[in-house]
Amino acid sequence: MATKYYVVWAGRETGIFTSWDYTKKQVDKFPQAKYKSFKTKAEAEAAFKRVPSYAGAAQKKSTTASSSAKTAKATKAIDLSQFDVSIFTDGGCEPNPGKAGSGIAIYRSGELAELWYGLYTAHGTNNTAELNALHQALLLAVSAMKDGKSVQILSDSQYSINCITHWAYGWKAKGWKRQKAGDIKNLDIIQQAHELFDSVKDKLTIMHVPAHVGIEGNELADRMSIYAIDKKDSQFCRYPDPIVLSNILSLRAG
């Protein structure tokens, strides 16, 4: 039987899956679930990257206590000079669920300064990897802001951004439960990341950026997430200097 690929844009977990049983658990009885099957991996990946407009609806409609946080959409050209520190995050998983890793690219005053990779797990998901990367970015952001730096975080995971900056407020108010929707996936990391976000939300900017459209920081974070899978390093490690941009971009992409 030919393998089918299931794209979930809105569900308990989002991403591309090869198991219908697993996919069904993510969308069954989930409010306004959005998903579709495809015959090839390439078709599924292309569809997932197009992210339908409804995927950002929760962010636009949110009126929770996190409304003071600044969020925005980004285009291919991003001006990083407005912030002292810009942190791009990404997570990768092969397949999904499967081997997962996280990556980060840090720019200081618009110039590439550091790359980080790791948090490998043999039994992860794309969402877990994205959340782990965002959590690490928040740790770095809090540290930089204590030194008086302005910081922005840029992630291509709308799911992760929504979990930390929007949905967590409602879940917390309900005792970290979903109403009629079961347990919250990735709860531990969401709680840790949300606590960090909530402590700096009035000063921190978090942006959603499209994936794989040529944004340098996003491409570098992507390469680091797959590098983490290849290296199988469970720690979060700094990629050694010197950083040769062409060499990094020639690494496997997610």
From TrEMBL:
It comes from Shewanella youngdeokensis. The keyword Cell division does not apply. It catalyses: Endonucleolytic cleavage to 5'-phosphomonoester. Coiled coil: none annotated. Its cofactor is Mg(2+). InterPro entries: Ribosomal_bL9/RNase_H1_N, RNase_H, RNase_H1_euk, RNase_H1_N, RNase_H1_N_sf, RNaseH-like_sf, RNaseH_domain, RNaseH_sf. The keyword Nuclease applies. Its EC number is 3.1.26.4. GO terms for molecular function: RNA-DNA hybrid ribonuclease activity. Belongs to the RNase H family. Keywords: Endonuclease, Hydrolase, Magnesium, Metal-binding, Nuclease. Residues 81-230 form the RNase H type-1 domain. This is ribonuclease H. It holds the Pfam family RNase_H. PROSITE patterns: RNASE_H_1.
